[in-house]
Model the fold of this input.
Amino acid sequence: MVINLRHHLASAWAHVSDQWAARHQDTGPRRRVKDAPMRSFHWLFAACFTLAYLTSETEKLRMLHVTMGYTLVGLLAFRLVYGVVGPRHANIGALWRKAKGLPHWVRQTSAQLATPTSGPAINWRQGYLMVTPVATLLILALVAPIALSGYATFNELGGDWLQDALGEVHEFFGNFMLFTVLGHLAWLVVLSLLTKRNEASPMYSGTVAGAGPDLVQHNRLWLGIAVVLGVVLYVAWEWQNSPNGLIRWSALF
Done:
């Protein structure tokens, strides 16, 4: 199984650069699959988590760390609301329905890798459509324990023993979320090599190559801009109200 998977990766690597370069020059039809609010949420969420993790061990950057944590909670709230009242492609229930098919796909793919000369080709695209919702749901769910334990620690709720316990909880779930994010990124890289297409491109372009109807009828650029402005205004407000700002510049030098 491992040898066959390595063969898939090696053959894909020989073509993927040319495929991606050609796609940058592609003038053919494209379909919209992601709207502006979802893309804004994705990149803001990624940026906030990255900053929160990188500033978690530096006392002089603690207010920046806390602000990024609160921003993650606000972005999570937006995603949940948008997943309920927003368009079909953003529906939280749809993520769950896709994720439930993952165990069957894993069993089927394992059998195909074990006997590569028989049966249909492996549907890596289908795997992407199942693994990604699992990672997304897990990452969203991890915000709650991280935020609650962080809030209690920052506000020194409970005695010393509880503070120590909550600190361990906060660190554990933060590392677990990092592991999940890195696993998600690794899967995107491997899948892009296997399918010979950049599987991450829809999250920054919003489209995929090919003819056919748009899966997302309206881009809702105004809402995507509103999400970005909301985060910028909140961070600016926190900076203005923090006695020393969000960054003690001496911590950087």
Observations:
- DSSP finds nine helices and two strands in the chain.
